[in-house]
Amino acid sequence: MILFMVSEVMFFFAFFWAFFTSSLTPVFNIGGVWPPIGIEVISPWGLPLLNTILLLSSGATVTWSHHAIVGGLKQEAETALYLTLTFAVYFTTFQFLEYIEAPFSISDGVYGSTFFMATG
């Protein structure tokens, strides 16, 4: 199990490494600028911030549910788990909307591919 978790962390780290390497040293193929010409950057204060809050909240509620299970509080555990599932449905819906409304796609070079691979 620990090997799986470490491999997932390294996998996720690799996407951010690719993104930061590409942004700090843009190559001539993309015009030598970052973000590449023609790419409109998504504001981090809209849906990305809301999705971050939903993810952190779902982490807190699933931890609450776990502690309630350990403490033998079945009703409280169910409430926390339902709240976690509600956050998951909202997060998935908002992530889908963010992908649909993104002004770029996965085929738009290194910016689009690293964005969609790291967030999806």
UniProtKB/TrEMBL annotation:
<protein>
    <recommendedName>
        <fullName>Cytochrome c oxidase subunit 3</fullName>
    </recommendedName>
</protein>
<comment type="function">
    <text>Component of the cytochrome c oxidase, the last enzyme in the mitochondrial electron transport chain which drives oxidative phosphorylation. The respiratory chain contains 3 multisubunit complexes succinate dehydrogenase (complex II, CII), ubiquinol-cytochrome c oxidoreductase (cytochrome b-c1 complex, complex III, CIII) and cytochrome c oxidase (complex IV, CIV), that cooperate to transfer electrons derived from NADH and succinate to molecular oxygen, creating an electrochemical gradient over the inner membrane that drives transmembrane transport and the ATP synthase.</text>
</comment>
<feature type="transmembrane region" description="Helical">
    <location>
        <begin position="45"/>
        <end position="67"/>
    </location>
</feature>
<dbReference type="InterPro" id="IPR013833">
    <property type="entry name" value="Cyt_c_oxidase_su3_a-hlx"/>
</dbReference>
<dbReference type="Pfam" id="PF00510">
    <property type="entry name" value="COX3"/>
</dbReference>
<dbReference type="GO" id="GO:0005739">
    <property type="term" value="C:mitochondrion"/>
</dbReference>
<dbReference type="InterPro" id="IPR035973">
    <property type="entry name" value="Cyt_c_oxidase_su3-like_sf"/>
</dbReference>
<dbReference type="GO" id="GO:0004129">
    <property type="term" value="F:cytochrome-c oxidase activity"/>
</dbReference>
<keyword id="KW-0496">Mitochondrion</keyword>
<dbReference type="GO" id="GO:0016020">
    <property type="term" value="C:membrane"/>
</dbReference>
<keyword id="KW-1278">Translocase</keyword>
<dbReference type="InterPro" id="IPR024791">
    <property type="entry name" value="Cyt_c/ubiquinol_Oxase_su3"/>
</dbReference>
<comment type="similarity">
    <text>Belongs to the cytochrome c oxidase subunit 3 family.</text>
</comment>
<feature type="domain" description="Heme-copper oxidase subunit III family profile">
    <location>
        <begin position="1"/>
        <end position="120"/>
    </location>
</feature>
<keyword id="KW-0472">Membrane</keyword>
<dbReference type="GO" id="GO:0006123">
    <property type="term" value="P:mitochondrial electron transport, cytochrome c to oxygen"/>
</dbReference>
<keyword id="KW-0812">Transmembrane</keyword>
<dbReference type="InterPro" id="IPR000298">
    <property type="entry name" value="Cyt_c_oxidase-like_su3"/>
</dbReference>
<feature type="transmembrane region" description="Helical">
    <location>
        <begin position="79"/>
        <end position="97"/>
    </location>
</feature>
<keyword id="KW-1133">Transmembrane helix</keyword>
